[in-house]
Amino acid sequence: GCPRTRGIMGRTIKEAVAKDWDTEYLDLILSVKVVDDLKDAIDHINTHGSHHSDTIVTENRNEADQFLKSVDSACLYVNASTRFTDGHQFGFGAEIGISTDKVHARGPMALEELTTYKYLVFGNGQIRE
């Protein structure tokens, strides 16, 4: 965690280093940073995130809307777990993969090839079990 996280949670949490913000652990490990406001959170996510799936937990609809408009990720959630980002969960059948690319076509293109998707998901605290 960042120094503010360690101040809240105690010194038993390891101190985060710069590379921690860009590391995807694929394990039960978190890098936790306390930020001053929503803008700082959005900037941190857009700088260090994978552009895959991100969530905000809030009761403030204006902040949720700002998060959805400003975070550059393929799937965005309000008050729900990012673990729902899965082809099967979205009703697409077996998942092949999740793209974080924006333009995927090569060769001659029409409107369909120039279209990208950004999924916005609203919840009330749902988690995937």
What would you note in describing this structure?
The protein is α/β, with parallel strands linked by helices and 129 residues long. It starts with a helix and ends with a strand. It has helices at 3-9, 38-48, 61-70, and strands spanning 53-56, 75-80, 119-126. The longest helix is centred in the middle third of the chain and has 11 residues, at 38-48.
Query: How do the SSEs run, as a string of H and E?
Result: HHEHEE
Q: State mean pLDDT (0 to 100 scale).
A: 89
Number of strands: 3
Quaternary class: single chain
Strand content: 5-15%
Number of helices: 3
Q: Kindly, what is the distance between the CA atoms of the first and last residues, rounded to a whole number of angstroms?
A: 27 Å
Q: Which class do the helix and strand fractions yield?
A: alpha/beta
For this entry, give a set of tags:
alpha/beta; 3 helices
Summarize the structure.
Helices cover 22% and strands 14% of the residues.
Helices and strands, with pairings:
Blueprint: H1 3-9, H2 38-48, E1 53-56, H3 61-70, E2 75-80, E3 119-126
Parallel strand pairs: 1-2, 2-3
